Amino acid sequence: MKLIESVPNFSEGRREEIVRQIIDEVGKYPKVRVLDWSMDKDHNRSVVTLVGEPEQVLEALFDMTKKASQLIDLRYHKGEHPRMGATDVIPLVPLIGTTMQECVEWSKQLAKRIGEELNIPVYLYERSATYPERENLSEIRKGEFEGFFEKIKDPRWKPDFGPEVVHETAGVTAVGAREFLIAFNVNLGTNNIEIADKIAKAVRHISGGYRYVKAMGVELKEKGIVQVSMNLTNYKKSPIFRVFETIKREAERYGVPVVGSEIIGMVPLQAIVETFSWYLQLDDFSTNRVIEERLINELTKEE
Fold this sequence. Notes:
Elements: E1 3-6, E2 9-10, H1 16-24, E3 32-40, E4 45-52, H2 54-71, E5 87-96, H3 100-118, E6 122-126, H4 137-141, H5 144-151, E7 173-177, E8 182-188, H6 193-203, E9 213-220, E10 225-232, H7 240-253, E11 258-264, H8 269-280, H9 291-302
């Protein structure tokens, strides 16, 4: 059995009927499952988690990208989260019976097809990147949709696939292979975006924080608060509990409480167990002590 995961991000988080039409494309493929999807009005973004047989996952992702290009017009899109495409990013993650190198090759196949058939410029990122400066998605995304019309003219930002002009409504897309990522956000009891920005700067790698943390401050206007929005690109080396505790301590400096947190999409059981163990100061605790996990392992052995 071969399984991969993909977590495509779409630049629509306010019109549920649009998001559902994009997700409905997966229904054509019996060997692909939607495990989770979520919308965020402030970010104006949706995140979908798919798992399935590689060939059908690639087909589903192409169809979702095509549908998004038909339904989303970035000329009228505004949100707190940076974006450059209707389908903003498509990561491929190896799960069962698959390798990172296979995901790299599959990402190139998908990127080529999107570029050629949908006329959307595509950039390869993370493990699939063709240049070091394209490994980091935030570097590709700089300037966002509006700035890409000039950026793409620079020879350094020639797309890996597709036309050398930005798609008028669907923008550009990034496709790549990567390790499992946790999208983790921490809400602060203030509406002061400067505080969220300062705390994000304290924890993100690029400004001296944790090696595997990307972070930015975000306004949640509907709730009247701000948020430290993060991607944990290696939860084993920059664990959730350590990042969370740092944010709490930094917030204390400004007299601001942490009022909640959220995980967008799916999360590995190991990350939950490590956080649980740390806060309860448990000794010698592992996923093997989780009854559901143990039962699955035993039932698998019987088969």
